[in-house]
Amino acid sequence: MADATIDTAGLPQGKARSLWADARRRFLRNRAAMASAVVLVLVLLFAAFGQYLNQWSNEEIDWEMLGMIPEIGGPSLSNGHYFGVDETGRDLFQRTVQGTRISLAVGIVGALIAVLVGTAYGAVAGYVGGRTDNVMMRFVDLMMSIPYMFVLILLLVIFSRSIVMLFVGIGLISWLDMARIARGQTLSIKNADYVEAARAIGVSGGTIIRRHIVPNLLGVIIVYATLLVPQMIIFESFISFLGLGVQEPSTSWGALINQGAANMRNGTPWMLGFPLFFFVVTLFALFFLGDGLRDALDPKDR
Amino acid sequence: MTSYILRRLLVAVPTLLALIVLSFLLMEFAPGSPFATERGIPEAVMANLEREYGLDRPLWERMATYVWGVVTQFDFGPSFTFPDRSVNDIIAQGFPVTLTYGFWSFVVAVVVGVTLGAVAAIKHNSALDYAAVGVTVGAQVLPNFVMAPILVLIFTLWLGWLPGGGWRGGQVEYVVLPVIALSTSYMASIARITRSSMLDVLNAGFVRTARAKGLPAHRVILRHALKPALLPVVSYLGPAFVGMITGSVVIDVFFSTGGIGQFFVNAALARDYSVILGITILFGALTIFFNLLVDVAYAWIDPKIRY
Predict the structure, then answer these.
(1) Domain named ABC transmembrane type-1: which ranges (chain A) (predicted)?
(2) pLDDT tens digit string along A26-36?
(3) Which of A157, B1, B60, B145 could form a disulfide with A241 if both were Cys (CB 3.0 to 4.6 A apart)?
(4) Would you call A91 helix, strand, or coil by DSSP?
């Protein structure tokens, strides 16, 4: 039966491509997403090493500027204040570096909490199903119908305004959407043949969720997590804009934009411009990155 | 339909009660007394103050009184920092302002958003479509607290066309910038959702049938395509409403409108618990009520939903 072997001569040679390699190829070919990735790397580098780029610190006051900030406090390469100084004579470049760090940290931590809690919650609810599912998702609905921003501000007022409280508050609500998405995906995965096969040979529910459900959720989760980061950043900036988030001398993009807005009538437009630029550019990049990842990882959309 | 509404009410009412009780308990955990000053208050005075505000009674009794007062008479009690004003006075003063520009923001977001999205979908891949997509993508990164300073910078400081704050009883020029600042990002989201669902619907079989039987284009779109295309928009209205209520705080503070958000932030900074609590409950009730409306509207529009 020699002629039963498949003739491979006419087929393209090379290794079989995995799902992930395929996704990577698609992502690398997406120009907007690649440009966004480059921008994000630059912003990360700025946050990590910006501290060493000039001789000022974020708390030090440049006394020579005081009283004449609208006239001589603007951006300048010669005196090292690349972004100018703020209304109290502090170096805006270093303030922006610090604000970038805190805003990015909030975004990433918020998204991480959402990924961990939301995925576990949604996968369990979807896999177990029935009444458990009903109760668990009703609870999510209930949480979502509460105006969380007000409750969070209530929390911040009661337990003192601190960055830790802010993380807790953001963590409390960030996972809700993720739980819904994970549950929806789990519902479609759990009827797949390989899950049934696993159940048939007696694999326990917990192991099935860990070994079979969660890995197959990963694509959706990665996409949604990238889109959550900008949401968390907006969320934190909102609270800091109101003066209820991070407290001086710490700062974030929201707090910097607020100060810039409060001082824009005093002839210091750079105080608004630079933080706004970083905020807008980073958010843009994150949204495009998320879109690119969705195109690369979600096979349904093509 | 009636039973569906009743069932939704059965969920909404306990949610609201839970919110009231939870917020009240949170306030109980707050350290310190609302009357404490840096110089200290004589014990007898403190005792009198606490009796006056009913703080000497046990927790459950105060909570029952509070919840009962809120539910039966919409009475949120006195403000702790302004002895001569009740929380109701503050709400009565600030809420009409917030409601006015909030209402217009909502209308603008929905009308402009739906129109933009629908037109973009109908003229798919035209210059107009690309412009609409560009606007919606750009507006995504412009939340209200970013839009507000940019608008004031351009229209007040550079062009001098519109006032950058104040209210003056709601004269048109004082309402324009708050409405634009609050509605932009939601308008963009609504436009994006409308566009993508409209594209799906326009490719559906029943639209092709309607076209094939010779209906004019505007009838196909208005009578057949628009209604199913709006379903995702309707379900987005709930989150949009929450976002706008939340965003109104920024608008009130930034434009000094004298709206309710200004009182809220001042109360948050001054630890005036009863005002924070009252406003949180008011906005919570509004949110829950609006979500109920959205659910009912959705069930009414979508023939596939069984209730």
Answers:
(1) 100-289
(2) 888 888 888 88
(3) B145
(4) strand
How many CB atoms within 10 Å of residue A63?
8
Q: Tell me whether A92 touches chain B (CB under 8 Å).
A: no
User: What residues have CB less than 8 Å from B158, skipping those under 6 apart?
Assistant: none
- Say whether residue B106 is in contact with chain A using an 8 A CB cutoff: no
Please state, as a whole number, how many other Cβ atoms lie within 10 Å of the Cβ of residue A101. Answer: 19
Look at B249 and A149 and tell me if their CB atoms are within 8 Å: yes
Q: What is the CATH number of the domain that holds A106?
A: 1.10.3720.10
**A15 part of a folded domain:** no
Which of A166-170, B59-63, B147-151 is the most confident on average?
Answer: B147-151
- Yes or no, beta carbons of B146 and A276 under 8 Å apart: yes
Total count of domains within chain A:
1
- Neighboring chain B residues of A40 at a CB cutoff of 8 Å: none
Asked if the structure places residue A9 within a domain, the reply is no
Q: Identify the CA nearest to B269 among candidates A88, A250, A93, A161.
A: A161
pLDDT at A27: 82
How far is residue B259 CA from its own chain's centroid? Answer: 13
- Residue A78 is assigned to a structural domain of this protein: yes
What is the 3-state secondary structure of chain B?
A: CHHHHHHHHHHHHHHHHHHHHHHHHHHHHCCCCCCCCCCCCCHHHHHHHHHHCCCCCCHHHHHHHHHHHHHHHCCCCECCCCCCCEHHHHHHHHHHHHHHHHHHHHHHHHHHHHHHHHHHHHCCCCHHHHHHHHHHHHHHCCCHHHHHHHHHHHHHHHCCCCCCCCCHHHCHHHHHHHHHHHHHHHHHHHHHHHHHHHHHHHCCHHHHHHHHCCCCHHHHHHHHHHHHHCHHHHHHHHHHHHHHHHHHHHHHHHHCCCCHHHHHHHHHHHCCHHHHHHHHHHHHHHHHHHHHHHHHHHHHHCCCCCC
pLDDT digits (tens, 9 = 90+) for B71-111: 777 777 777 777 777 888 888 888 888 988 899 999 999 99
> Which domains, from first to last, does chain B contain?
90-270 (1.10.3720.10)
A63-95 residue pLDDT tens: 777 767 777 777 777 777 778 777 777 888 888
CB contact under 8 A, B254 and A269: no
Inter-chain residue contact B291 with A145, CB threshold 8 Å: yes
- Say whether A157 and B264 touch across the interface (CB within 8 A): no
- Candidate from B19, B150, B246 with C-beta closest to A149: B246
Q: Which two tokens stand for residue B92?
A: 């009565």
ipTM above 0.85, yes or no: no
Q: Taking Cα atoms as reference points, which of A230, A252, A254 lies closest to residue A114?
A: A230
Domain ranges, residue A150: 20-295
CB-based contact, B30 to chain A, within 8 Å = yes
Query: Which residue in chain A has the smallest CA separation from B19?
Result: A146
A5: in domain: no
Predicted confidence (pLDDT) at residue B278 exceeds the cutoff of 90: no
B157 contacts A265? CB cut-off 8 A: yes
A157 near B CB under 8 A: yes
Q: How far is B262 from chain A (nearest CA, A)?
A: 10
Amino acid found at B13: V
